[in-house]
Amino acid sequence: MKIFVNELENYVDKEITFSGFVDAVRDKKWVMFVILRDSTGKVQMTLEKSEESNSSMLELMKNTTVESTIRVTGKVVSNEAVKLGGLEIIPTNIEVTSEAEALPFDFNNLDGVNIDTRMDYRWLDMRNPRNTLIRQVESCLTEGMREYLYKNHFTEIHSPKLIGTASESGSEVFEVKYFDREAYLAQSPQFYKQMALAGGLDRVFEVGPVFRAENSNTNRHATEFTGFDLEFAHIDSYEDVMSLEEDLLIAGLSKVKDVYGEKIKEVFGCEVIVPKKPFPRIKLGDLYKELHDRYNFEIPTEDIGDMNAEAEKLTFKLAQELYQSEFMFVVDYAATKRPFYHMRDKDGKLQGYDLIWRGVEITSGAQREHRYEELVKNAKEKGLTKDVEFYLQFFKYGCPPHGGFGIGLDRMTMLLLGLSGIKETQFLFRGPNRLNP
Question: Does domain 5-98 have CATH number 2.40.50.140?
Fold first, then answer.
């Protein structure tokens, strides 16, 4: 098993084998210092030139390039003079496990390096400690939310991403060749989450890829991203869904703050703020009025009944001014602007919401329509027939009242760390003009 840098303090005065990247070589008159790196930090390896037994290792390291990988056997020694954690490795054997060629750019200094060049060499870009931290923070956020759901009786499912019909609307889907017929990449696991509830699972969630054939080149859109989706049964209203999302986000952000809060402040200069329940709520009509009266903002005609990017930014400003909150639930959207499976009350009012965080929508949630006759009626109203026939079958044989939502993990991580775009957030970005690496 590999020993990591952040575990070395447990091995003082013991002989170990350590593997990592060669971060730097400092060849002094009497001694050679080699800085080794892994995903948890850096450690110094020290080679005294006066020691005859070190001659072959000194010669080896003189000819080993930076960013090569090596395996070192040696003793972990405590040394207060060493700035890297007060520890060093005194080697007895060194093996070069891979030799690195000259780098196309310095990943430790990305100023002036084009973002697309960085994406072309993403495996090098990732070696920047800042980018390593992004991945670790997203993983920690996911872990915190997963832990909350497991503790609250949710079952993790894995739904297919190859589907036989064009899902919710027939638009914004990728077609793929599937033997002798067409198939599609799933826009979301929505239908399958609901199928699981119809199958008797009370609470389900999924973390997996989501595909959107949107030719959008904004800083927050991608054609493939990681969705964190959940659905749960036996609810009374969409207020239950909003309440659970509050608890979920509090759990995830609390985990990140506990594990990486100080590091995020040091590297990204921003605070991990854990919200308190309840998040503020506002009706869409009231929001329009507030935005008009306070900021002279008029929602464009084509967006009436919905939001746009400018409205989302101003909603964040309003949430801070009125409630000292980074979050705002917006309710009472027009049914015409939402999917057919969102429930409406007897007056036709949509039983759903959007959640705005730091000026960006991170969630669309709702109580779902579980009554077969109402679903059929809503689907016909939207002009959906054959594409949703398989989905409608789930509700013929009894299905409990339920609701849910989905969160884009990449977008949420972008907002959490104050990043300028989703290209930096995603492990490997996919957009209209990028399919590699």
Answer: yes
> Which one of the listed residues 19, 310, 364, 430 is annotated catalytic?
364
Query: Computed from CA positions of residues 285, 289, 294, 295, in that sequence, does the dihedral angle turn out positive or negative?
Result: positive
Q: Catalytic site residue 221? A: yes
Decide if 361 is catalytic.
yes
Which residue out of 220, 281, 430, 434 is catalytically annotated? 220
**Torsion angle of C-alpha atoms 86, 91, 95, 97, degrees rounded to 10:** -10
Share of the chain above pLDDT 70, in %: 99
* 9 included as an active-site residue: no
For the chain, the domains span 5-98, 123-425
> Is 243 among the residues known to form the active site?
no
| Closest to 364 (Cα-Cα) out of 323, 310, 424, 312 | 312
Residue 212 is a catalytic residue: yes
Per-position DSSP letters for 381-424, written without gaps between them: HTT--GGGHHHHGGGTT----EEEEEEEHHHHHHHHHT-S-HHH
Catalytic pick among 37, 212, 368, 370: 212
Residue 159 bears catalytic tag:
no
Summarize pLDDT for 380-430 with one digit per residue, the tens. 988 887 778 889 999 999 999 999 999 999 999 999 999 989 999 999 999
User: For 238-291, what is each residue's pLDDT tens digit?
Assistant: 999 999 999 999 999 999 999 999 999 999 999 999 999 999 999 999 999 999
* Residue closest to 145 by CA, chosen among 406, 426, 331, 401: 406
Could you list the beta-strand ranges (E) of 291-390: 327-331, 352-357, 360-367
Strand residues in 28-146 grouped as ranges (E): 31-38, 41-48, 69-78, 87-98
The architecture of the domain spanning 123-425 is: 2-Layer Sandwich (3.30)
The predicted pLDDT at position 25 comes to 96
Confidence at 68, pLDDT banded by 50, 70, 90: very high
